[in-house]
Amino acid sequence: MAKRKRISLDLPYPPTVNTYWRKYRGKMVLSARGRSYKEAVRYSVLSKTRGHVFKDPDPLRVIAILFPPDRRKRDIDNSLKALLDALGNDVLYSDDSQISELHLYRGNARPQNGCVSVTIERL
User: Fold this and answer.
1) I need a labelling partner for 52 at 20 to 30 A (CA). Which of 3, 19, 91, 121 fits?
2) What's the chain look like in SS3?
């Protein structure tokens, strides 16, 4: 079977790093919002790809365009951690360390929750 070289997906808009983690009993843990986002991405990816796409530890390029849910001022990098974590852990790739090239862009606001368009390709 030939290795898949590229995949493009539209996914839910990620939570910010400020809401992704919570302190619980002195430890940092994934928040309920973070767990919910990871599950939504996992379901979306699995329904569109039928399983793990990039099984080998090959280097990857990730291109993401964030379409926020409104026009509020946001730091573009605050949503990146949640997105990359949700795609990793054997959902689309094994680990974030596979990412050798990363492009992040901000698109126009898209009311009704926003989204993120992601393209991942083997280098």
Assistant:
1) 19
2) CCCCCEEEEEEECCCCHHHHEEEECCEEEECHHHHHHHHHHHHHHHHHHCCCCECCCCCEEEEEEEECCCCCCCCHHHHHHHHHHHHCCCCCECCHHHEEEEEEEECCCCCCCCEEEEEEEEC
